[in-house]
Amino acid sequence: MNNNEEELKQDVRFLELLSEKFPTVSSATTEIVNLQAILSLPKGTEHFLSDLHGENTAFTHVLKNASGVIRRKVDDLFGMNMRQQDRDALCSLIYYPAEKLEQIRKLEIDIDDWYRTTLFQVVAVARVVASKYTHSKVRKSLPPEFAYVIEELLYESQTDSDKQNYYSSLINSIVDIGRSEEFIIAISELIHRLIIDTLHIVGDVYDRGSGAYDIMETLCDYHDFDMQWGNHDISWMGAAVGNLALIANVVRISIRYANVETLEEGYSINLLPLATFAIDTYGDDPCEAFQAQEFEVNSRMRRSMQLMAKMHKAISIIQFKLEGQIIKRRPEYKMEDRNLLHLIDYEKGTITIAGKTYPLLDTNFPTIDPKDPYKLSTEEEQLMKQLHHSFTTSEKMQKHLRCFYHHGSLFLVRNNCLLYHAAIPLNNDGTFKEVEIDGQKYKGKALMERIDQIVRIAYFGQHGSEEHSSAIDYMWYLWCGPDSPLYNKDKMTTFERYFIGDEELCKEVKGAYYELSNHIETCDYIMQEFGLDPQISRIINGHIPVRTTRGESPLRAEGKRLVIDGGFSKPYHETTGIAGYTLIYNSHGLHLVQHEAFENKEKAVIAGSDIHSRVQLVEFKYHRMLVRDTDRGRELQGQIDNLRKLLLAYRHGVIKEKA
Description:
By secondary structure, the chain is α/β, with parallel strands linked by helices. It is globular and about 95 Å long.
């Protein structure tokens, strides 16, 4: 018996299972040929976005234009024989086909002629976009209604005159039977589907902007995406699994940024009990420190500015109490310095911190018992029970929570890229910081894996168990804890900003990571920890907005770390000077895209405006990156190797072919 036969007999059980799917030499051979061909295709395009913060309009546009990829395809195809304004109009049509068609219908004199010309153009774009995929994959992406016709058009011969006549006849027939617009929409949606192979969201879908619900609806239906949890995401995830402090935090931030429609309209969270409680409790209180930001620019706010301020203050006080309870319950967090309510002199209206006394900006605390300041009043307890019920039973919120767990993780290693939202705790000397969790110490990759596990226990764990309760509390620590890789600052000074306002007290000192990760040595050290080759790999982060107005660059450590939070969120635009960075990783290289502020969809449709400017980061000089060069390629190669073993098993008689 030779070595091959001996090895096959050792793998016989596995190969028998594989033979159920490939029962003959012919079927196994066909699959090997198919997989080998896929390995030779260009790598699919990956699209990286971070820190969306509820800005659904800008997110949708960046998704539709694929950070400029569609425009580049159009320019490559038609740049020599089409005016810039016509190329702009074609891009706008592909981004927003239904809206653009409505505009065109009013302007064009010979609409059928326009339909014919445009159908040729959008099919040409679709053909280029589909060229890097197998026919099988494209076929699965086709809209059923037009699948046959689109497939014929995508793969028609460019040289055969008879096929050209057939192709023209198909286009003319579409126009003659009055289905041009439906077909243009279907082709545009196919382009959207194929232009991006995988979408990566590097954290923070939520907070500030009012469109987080709509973003999540889009993501949950997207063909292939993953997300790395951000600190704001963790806050909403923790609220959805019932952490009372995070429920209060989510409501507080929603009110602060005047976007309660995400809660009320998106997730059907009833805020009326909070409004009633706030009016009853803070009726004559001006609540000046709690005026909602951006109130005047948000026309959808239905409540008065003053009512929102009262609600803001009410939920903030509740949050500070609930956080104090967690800190007392979990001394291992070592966050006792964040409990401040017991340091207040309620008669004098002052607070003493580290031996220094400060006057409070607001001294009205009707719900705080100075003898037990962290205890909720009876009314506050009842309110939080109602909010807890709303959050944990909201079907829409639970749907999105499942999406976060199914597609999300704390970090991801993919195609020589290490993705995580914010940081990995480091010591000042650049070594990984040990963080104690449940009596054990973790650092580096092991820490990230343990925290990912805890986040999952908070959702999937046995309710009522200590492990489950501990995990739910830890979700709050991840939001604001000093050694949380999603925060990694010495403290979160929310109380100080509201009630003291002293600049020194309000400082939040960043962990060592934020400075050290700007150096090549640190990035190499981190990438090696996660099994990556520093020579060809990169770290991709968000979390900290890149302030281009101060000369900051998204490229850190000579391009080894990319920070792609450039300020999608409108409140950041003034300090960042731009409206965000995104990253495109295709078969030609890495391309960083800087975005201008997106005004509105109407301007994009009518004027053909767009929001990108391209910054080339790395171009593969010697060859296009193929599927075989990716993680997916290595998986496919493993399948090929197993199929080759199956072929040998058939040929050596170890396994019999099935009829």
